[in-house]
Specification:
Helices cover 34% and strands 14% of the residues. By secondary structure, it is of the alpha/beta class. The chain has two domains: 156 residues, Rossmann fold; 166 residues, Rossmann fold, CATH 3.40.50.2000. Strands 2-1-3-4-5-6 form a six-stranded parallel beta sheet, with helices on one face. It has a six-stranded parallel beta sheet with strand order 9-8-7-10-11-12, sandwiched between helices. Helix 6 runs parallel beside helix 7 and helix 6 packs across helix 11. It is globular and about 65 Å long.
């Protein structure tokens, strides 16, 4: 599976320029409604379960989806530009000169959108980029945000910018694509972190808390693709504790499902305020409870899915907090997590309505 935003333990979505050609449109719906061509800043689907796949499979029948490259963005024909992680349009960690070029290309793109009155839609997967960019990057992103016609927030707890048109469309679940794989039972005492390993994910905090637990019956599994320098830090933190085991690479959908299903508890110990996590929905889709930091978003989601599925902690993740969560999840909740309102077909219709609203706001509706 790939990541919806930074959420992958497996093959993650890289919402950047691709040079790939548009996908074939879905079947044309009868009636007089005009078809919408939407250009997404996502990598084209490759057969794994990633965010782009769900956007395509769940798209309304009168919406045609294409995937971004600079040529299409600057010269192609489309009705709406839908950007997901705008910072990834301009970032390049190894070539500063290319970052400069990308910032200028973004300026040209915004100019074209304004002149052609093509609406710009932004899904606020994160309120702010996780990694700090340069001052020039910040200025470029500020220009991007000023041009946004419609913001899609993923949950009602997200703050709304004053004067900015905003709609709420929730993140979808992954029950259907995951159902094709074997579903092993949970192993008592097995704790899992999965996802890309980056400093803000707090994997080191989880390892430290786990090492403070005395029981020999517990196991901690760390699964995910590490950013540069993170693998060494994880190995060093785990050293000397045979109860901790790691798989630091991309994993397939099938491997991911097995890892989650075999776990009693999933822990996502993010630093700072936790706004949105596709990993959380992956775990819930497979019927595994999740321990997360306290936040308005997580509180709202806990109420939505029902008791026993989302456990929250305030402050630092300590051995006591982790031990309490393990003890409380020794038996499963009586009901499955409520995710019925998060099927992708329903989400696709909400997106179609949002695109029409954005066109009306830009004067093209």
């Amino acid at each position: 599976m790939r990541e919806a935003g930074p959420w992958g333990a497996w093959r993650r979505v890289r919402p950047v320029v691709t040079g790939r050609r548009p996908m074939r449109p879905a079947a044309v719906r009868s009636g007089t409604d005009r078809r919408l061509v939407v250009l997404h800043s996502l990598r084209e689907p490759d057969g794994t379960t990633q965010y782009a796949d769900q956007m395509v499979d769940g798209a309304a029948s009168d919406v045609d989806i294409r995937f971004f490259d600079w040529q299409t963005g600057l010269f192609g024909r489309y009705d709406v530009l839908h950007v997901h992680w705008p910072e990834l349009l301009i970032r390049d960690s190894r070539r500063p000169w290319l970052r400069f070029v990308k910032r200028r290309l973004l300026d040209l793109l915004l100019l074209r959108l304004r002149l052609r009155r093509i609406p710009l839609v932004w899904t606020a997967h994160n309120l702010n980029p996780h990694e700090q960019g340069s001052r020039a990057d910040h200025r470029s992103l500020d220009r991007f945000y000023r041009h946004v016609d419609l913001v899609i927030r993923l949950n009602p707890a997200s703050p709304v910018t004053a004067g900015r048109e905003t709609v709420t469309i929730p993140h979808g679940h992954y029950r259907e694509p995951f159902s094709r794989y074997a579903q092993p039972e949970a192993e008592p005492g097995r704790v899992l972190y999965f996802g890309i390993i980056r400093p803000y994910k707090g994997v080191d905090l989880l390892i430290a808390a786990f090492r403070g637990l005395p029981s020999d019956d517990l196991r901690l599994r760390i699964v995910g693709n590490p950013h540069p320098g993170q693998a060494e830090l994880v190995h060093e933190a785990c050293q000397g504790d045979p109860r901790i085991d790691t798989l630091l690479r991309l994993v397939s959908d099938e491997e991911l499902v097995e890892e989650i299903r075999r776990s009693q508890l999933v822990v996502l110990p993010y630093r700072g305020s936790m706004h949105n996590s596709g990993s959380l929905f992956a775990a819930l889709s497979l019927g595994r409870p999740v321990l997360v930091p306290e936040s308005p978003t997580n509180a709202a989601l806990a109420e939505e899915v029902g008791p026993g599925w989302i456990l929250q902690y305030s402050g630092e993740l300590t051995p006591e907090v982790l031990g309490s969560a393990i003890a409380s999840t020794a038996s499963r909740p009586s009901a499955e997590p409520r995710l019925d309102d998060r099927d992708w077909a329903r989400i696709g219709l909400h997106h179609r309505d949002a695109y029409r609203r954005a066109r009306a706001l830009s004067g093209r509706g």
